[in-house]
Design brief:
- The protein has 2 helices and no strands.
- It is mostly helical and about 80 residues long.
- It has one domain.
- The longest helix has about 45 residues, at about 30-75.
- It is rod-shaped and about 75 Å long.
- The relative contact order is 0.07.
Length: about 80
């Protein structure tokens, strides 16, 4: 199941209400478990952003290396 940002926000809000109720919470998954899952989702989002940025940086570096290698191969490496 894929959740969008609005659905995650709604789950977080409902779970916060459950945590405020304490022991009088409704049936279902324990609020602490849901809170842990939400923290995991946020941590995974941060990791995804980090790896995406790293991949973009790597792509730029590879493009520069290819450009330099092309210049050297064509005999124009003395720029």
């Amino acid at each position: 199941m894929i959740l969008d940002a609005n659905q995650i926000a709604a789950i977080r809000q409902r779970n916060d209400e459950e945590l405020r109720r304490g022991a009088r919470g409704t049936h279902g998954y324990p609020a602490r478990t849901v809170q842990d899952l939400l923290h995991t989702v946020e941590a995974m989002k941060r990791e995804k952003r980090k790896w995406k940025k790293l991949a973009q940086t790597r792509g730029k570096a590879l493009a520069e290396i290819q450009e330099l290698a092309g210049k050297v191969a064509n005999g124009g490496g003395n720029d």
